[in-house]
Amino acid sequence: MAAETATRRRIEARLDGLVAENRFTIAVVFPVVGALLLLASAESLVGPPLRYNALLILLGTIVMRLPLVAGLAPVLDRRAALGIAALVGYAFGIELIGVATGWPYGTFEYTIALGPMLAGVPLGLPVFFLPLVLNSYLLCLLVLGDAAGRRAIRLVAVIATVLLVDLVLDPGAVAIGFWSYGGGIYYGVPVSNYLGWVLSATVSVLALDLAFDRTALRARLDECGFMLDDLVSFVVLWGAINAYFGNWVPVGLALVLAGGLLKTDRFDFAVEPTVPDLWN
Q1: Domain coverage including residue 126
Q2: Is 159 inside a domain boundary?
Q3: What total number of domains does the chain contain?
Q4: In the chain, which ranges are continuous DSSP H helix?
Q5: What pLDDT shows up at residue 280?
Q6: Please, are residues 190 and 181 in contact by the beta-carbon 8 Å criterion?
Q7: Three-class secondary structure of residue 209 per DSSP
Q8: Is 279 domain-assigned?
Q9: How confident is the model at residue 45 (pLDDT cuts 50, 70, 90)?
Q10: In the predicted model, is pLDDT for residue 92 greater than 80?
Q11: b/e map 249-279, b = 16+ CB within 10 Å
């Protein structure tokens, strides 16, 4: 048991070091390159194999998730792991139902393959969905401060932040061609989608609140400066895509998220030490 614990700690330390040494590359370079490649795909400026390359989309997303993974790893005990596993099951279940029936998000379909697909749903769905909730939860813990200790305030704030995140994500994803609702009043997204997100956000936030030790999570947040870098990537990627398509409300909401990151000192990090030295 002691040997297993020591091995885990070594792996966590190496992952921490990897992310810390490459923060700018992961948090800024990857989403900028990703946005450019996706826009080039949408405008047919590139062809196969680069155009909407499912493997590149999935791998790029995984790389941008590394700060979150590294940040959570030390506080991921058995209860938290079970909570995450339950949310993975929920995410697949509700998405399969949604694609098949149109409930609870409204009728929609994935218009490109986001990696391997099962019954019209990406197998990489947890990589795309869960971090949206986790990042919202972590951001609210920091922004709320002492008020985060009150469950009702915490849960309402996190659910609202998850909806804010999706108000940025969905218009950009529809514009770039990831999925389609067949139309909707909010940049091609119907109101039903956000009603569905209220349900999924509530389930997910309640599960996370029960799964994680909030005291340990907050302590890890305080000591891990890069833990919200995945949200930085989100703001850069989807802010840029929405700006290109003139989706100015989502751009403004992305700036609100950026403001939250700035307020918590999570959008401001030294660039030079994290950029690979290309001259030596």
Answers
A1: 2-274
A2: yes
A3: 1
A4: 2-21, 23-24, 30-42, 54-72, 78-101, 125-144, 151-176, 191-211, 214-223, 229-244, 248-263
A5: 45
A6: yes
A7: helix
A8: no
A9: very high
A10: yes
A11: ebbebbeebbebbeebebbebeeeebeeeee
